[in-house]
Design brief:
The complex is a heterodimer of chains A (about 775) and B (about 290).
Chain A lengths: L15 H6 L15 E7 L5 E7 L1 H5 L3 E5 L1 H4 L26 E2 L5 E7 L2 H8 L3 E6 L6 H4 L15 E9 L2 H7 L2 E12 L8 E7 L4 E6 L4 H12 L6 E4 L15 H13 L3 E4 L2 H7 L3 E12 L5 E13 L6 H10 L10 E9 L13 H19 L3 H8 L8 E2 L5 E2 L4 H12 L1 H13 L3 E10 L16 E7 L5 E5 L8 H13 L6 E5 L16 H28 L6 E4 L2 E4 L2 E7 H10 L12 E6 L8 E10 L6 E11 L6 H20 L30 E4 L18 H17 L14 H12 L1
Parallel strand pairs in A: 1-12, 10-11, 14-15, 20-21, 27-28
Antiparallel strand pairs in A: 1-5, 2-4, 2-6, 3-5, 7-15, 8-13, 9-10, 9-12, 13-14, 16-17, 18-26, 19-20, 19-25, 22-23, 23-24, 26-27
Helix pairs in contact in A: 7-8, 10-11, 11-19, 13-14, 15-16, 18-19
Chain B lengths: L6 E3 L4 H11 L3 E4 L5 H6 L7 E4 L9 E3 L7 E4 L4 H6 L1 H6 L1 H8 L4 H6 L2 H7 L6 H8 L2 E6 L2 E6 H4 E3 L2 E2 L6 E7 L6 E9 L6 E11 L5 E9 L6 E2 L1 H7 L6 H8 L16 H24 L2
Classes of the chains: A alpha+beta (about 775), B alpha+beta (about 290).
Chain lengths: ~775, ~290
Amino acid sequence: MAQAPKFIGAPIKRRDDPRLIQGLAHYVDDFNPHGTLHMAMVRSPYGKANIRSVDVSKAAAAEGVVAVYTHEETKGIGPVPVGGLVPDAKVPEQPILADKQTLFAGEPVVAVIAETRYGARDAADLVDIDYEPLDAVVDLAAAMESGSPKVHDAYESNEAFKWGIAGGDVEAGMKEADVIVKEKITNARVAPLALEPRGVLAHYLPGEDKMTIWTSTQVPHKVRTLVALQIGMPENRMRVIAPEVGGGFGSKLNIYREEALAAFVSRELGVPIKWVESRSENFMTTIHGRGQVGDVEMGLKNDGTITAFRYNVLADCGAYYQLLTVAIFTLTGLMLPGPYKIENIEMNATGVFTNKVATDAYRGAGRPEATYILERMMDIAAIELGMDPVEIRRKNFPDKSEFPFNTSAGLSYDSGDYHQALDLALEAADYSGMRAQQEEARKDGRYLGIGFSTYVEICGMGPSAALGGQGWESARVRVEPTGKATVFSGASPHGQGQQTSFAQIVADGLGIDVNDVTVIHGDTDVVPYGVGTFGSRGTVVGGSAVVYARDKVRAKMAKFAAMEFEADENDIEFEDGKVFVRSAPEKSAGFAEVAMMAYSAIALPEDTDPGLEETHFFEPSNFTFPFGTHIVLAEVDPETGDVEILRYVAVDDVGNMINPLLVHGQIHGGIAQGLGQALEEEMIYGEGGQPLNASFMHYALPKASRLPRFELLHTTTPTDVNPLGAKGVGEAGTIGSTPAVVNAVLDALSPFGITHIDMPLRPERLWRAIAEKRA
Amino acid sequence: MIPASFDYVRPQSLEDALAQLREHGEDARVLAGGHSLLPVMKARLADPGVLIDVAGLEDLSGISESEGSEGGVRIGAMTTHAEIEASSLVRGKCYSLVEAAGAIGDVQVRNRGTLGGSLAHADPAADYPAVVLAAGAEITVVGADGERVIGADDFFTGAYETALRAGEIITSVRIRASAVRGSSAYLKAAQQASGFAVCGVAARLALDGNGVVASIRVGVTGVAATAYRATSVENALMGSAPSAESIRKAAAGAGEGVDALDDFYAGADFRRHLAGVYTARAIGKAWIRATGK
């Protein structure tokens, strides 16, 4: 574009908000085709159990019950799809309904189909399953001991896979070190908890031999391809629609049992089948995130230079893999050096089967775990070396002149200026003032702490080869005969706001008003084959596809305008709803007039076909690497263990911002989720493998009253990986906040000589740690 | 999260409600705000055959000055937490009740949940029990045998158990006004998910003209299976002119010897410790209010 952007970079409010706020949005559960039957699942309450017998006779005879399905009737459905594996991983088949054993609490055994949702639920209680409860595998370390009960009887042990990554020579680096600091660090299992639980409505029309599946997903095309394979149906007879989706956070980057099952049953019965997850089911059967327990070791010179970093970790897989269970742990390895020049790194991961639901992608997906252990170790090392946490970080940053920066984990960081982000954050926070405030408070017996997190993340996922396939994204842009523009995106936003930001991108390129652009996504019959929204890729990859598709349309329109004006197509400009000749601006037509020329096709430019509709598949050449500094000021009440966040300053460099309002929204939510993991969240299991806190009465999410005002600032270091210069922001807040919050709390507790406490930093844990040191 | 089927009746008078309760016996549950009962029904942990909705019964509503010389307040059982939180009359008579009401759940819960419903449910982690114990509240109930008044000290008999007899309904709660040189306070450590009290302490005290404690009652909830009065703390401070130090020292006994709840929110020892901390803070706050400092 020649002219300055009018909409790109503007803080335009999200288009989705009015309908979401007013309850006018349509989620899966809002669709009720005539004759819809309802599915209820009967699930095992045990961590592990043998199924001695299943008696569905009472349920089948209940009023309004149409059909009852067990393993026997559904074994024709293929197992739950699994990808992203590492060599030699053991891959257990996840059936649609359990056969002889159930391997986690919540695993479905029977599906009841009834005329009403209430009737299905009541009939589910009438299914009589005789279980023989078995010893469950809950704790990771115990799972790896010889003699531990096993998750899978067919395997020799609970080891699911071994995977490692090494760069440089960690042994040599450790030898070179003046000090070595070690800590055992846990990233607890947490639940993604999208506000809208999962749900699926499958509607098979026998006359048309056509299946439509509405499902709450981040990846409608993956659902189409994979469910089609699972139930043996040509995928071009199947249409998957992701309507309004109330959040995913990675948990809906998956293919779940109920999707294939509803489709299968709908095809068998020839009627629509609906299943909507309850919150209890959501806690028990939708994937969890994190779940790493590791030994971390860092070697440093006395001046703070890191010489080696090692992470030996047990990775909690759950009983079965979901789509990307194993891949998530490998992302931790790629992220291990973080924003520092660490030449020698090593991660040795052992995947562990447990009698729990699978872990998989949860906002940040492997990178928060790496950032957390690294940032914790930076603080622990700083204490050991008597350095300021700022200085030890600075000491190890690459300079901006060193970019693109090649890491020991094998990545090439596109662009960055880590010192600048840190400097800005220090200035905004008034770091020296904060330290003085901390000093003063200590005199009054108050415990304030300052926590840092300097992070980099892997976003814009990503090059297809690096992802094991499908890293690209698609877009089609159509200029309508009336001059409106429609974007069909292969990405599948579910709250990120691309209906607004993609319109900004197209409006600027075509010189039309942003309100003349409509964005459509999430319908496989309508949009080009796409990959989906996850890994901070929606704008970076999906938006880049929009740019190219837009420019193709624009070039074609320029040909029609050039023909009309008898000008050179390269001399055609688009601005304020007009198409005109740059060198002769009096030669001008309305945007819609030119659009109509292309559709009327009465005259066609040379070598040009009618219509204005162009598609582009964008393959990124690299990931993007946004970065930043988060600073937290927290106070701990040593008597109660309560933590209060007094200030939160974040500098996030996400490259160019298409819409700073959306960027801030993402960072707000991300910080809240990261803070939740730091202070409150953790799935807790009893010895039998039952989750003890699988409800919002028991599992704490951070509430608004818990959160401080966020002071958000930015530096802008564009990337050349994509035409937008954007780096992605979906996960930045989550990645930056968790270590910053934990580091602040531990800094507050430093007078007690406490250097590490595992998350979540619930009051009791802090109180116990203090009591221990006081004793 | 779908409950089993049940019948629903909405009696038009207290007499009618009592008759319905008699008719359906143990199969019936009284529905007040529903914020404790409906969740357990949805989880299918309770499946009453009949719900008797007492919303709209005039005898169970309203906040008013109670009759009698002591200038107390009468609060109808169906008064919502939000109404109590917003009541200047209650605030003037019993500050801690307003504080407790405002600390319950979230806005939706406070708009629906009721004082009588919460007391009858007697959740060990509910907020009100601490306040009614500290205030020495009188709980009026009515049943087949007519009306009777139960003192707060006698009301809570166990976890989810009260002195209510089968077929009885709470109609109102009466609380005496704080003394001229008296006040009260309620503070709690909230369970992070639900907001229920891991430890909640209400303290109510009155001072004489010399600043000596003339009366003091301390109620503790969330710590044990049943809310209790911290009598050792009361005794230690009664008749003395308190100081921050003496309050702290006395309060340390609030959790001593208590058979405390032990769960993943808080171990028994942490709860006993919190009882001491929150007792000191609640008494301190009430004391500062009482002295007008």
